[in-house]
Amino acid sequence: MFVRSPTYHGRMSVTVLIVDDHPTFRSFARELLEGEGFEVVGESEDGASAITATAALRPDLVLLDVQLPDLTGFEVTRRLVSDGIPTVVVLVSSRDASDFGDEITASGAAGFVPKAELSGAVLTTLLG
């Protein structure tokens, strides 16, 4: 797991947007996170819809797959940061963080979690 200092200041219920092109992972992540007290406010299957949904829904957290059909998770993160949207982005992938070199840090994401290690506790740690 890769961690960078987040800017989040906790609230009672953390709202989440799940972004992944695989419906099975979105369903798994929703069930896992809702079971651990997170409020999933939306899902997106590609980068363009993720940017639109983040602007509209203003989630506390965007759980964002690195590999999407139209944009990379790194590019989506850079756009969200440059647009000034106040959200914490956590990148996920079935690959290891070391496969991405400095791209995770350079994107502005708060951290990275391998999909196999996803949990509410890990996300809470990244949120601060």
Word description of this protein:
- The protein is an alpha/beta fold and 128 residues long.
- It has one domain: Rossmann fold (3-Layer(aba) Sandwich).
- Helix content is 37%, strand content 22%.
- The chain contains 5 helices and 6 strands.
- It has helices at 23-35, 47-57, 73-82, 103-107, 120-127; strands at residues 2-3, 15-19, 39-44, 61-65, 88-93, 111-114.
- Strands 1-6-5-4-2-3 form a 6-stranded mixed β-sheet, sandwiched between helices.
- Helix 1 links the parallel strand 2 (15-19) and strand 3.
- Helix 2 (47-57) runs parallel beside helix 3 (73-82).
- Residues 1-11 have low confidence and may be disordered.
Tags for this model:
128 residues; Rossmann fold; 6-stranded mixed beta sheet; globular
The major β-sheet equals: 6 strands, mixed
What is the CATH topology classification name?
Rossmann fold
Q: Give the integer mean of the pLDDT values.
A: 91
Strand content: 15-25%
Return the structural class.
alpha/beta
* Biggest sheet strand line-up: 1-6-5-4-2-3
Query: Between the first and last Cα atoms, what is the distance in angstroms?
Result: 15 Å
How would you name the oligomeric state of the polypeptide chains in this document?
Answer: single chain
Question: So how many helices?
Answer: 5
Level of helix content? Answer: 25-40%
Query: Any idea of the CATH class?
Result: Alpha Beta
**Name of the CATH superfamily:** Response regulator
Low-confidence stretches: 1-11
Order of helices and strands: EEHEHEHEHEH
Radius of gyration: 13 Å
CATH architecture: 3-Layer(aba) Sandwich
Number of beta-strand segments: 6
Specify the overall morphology.
globular
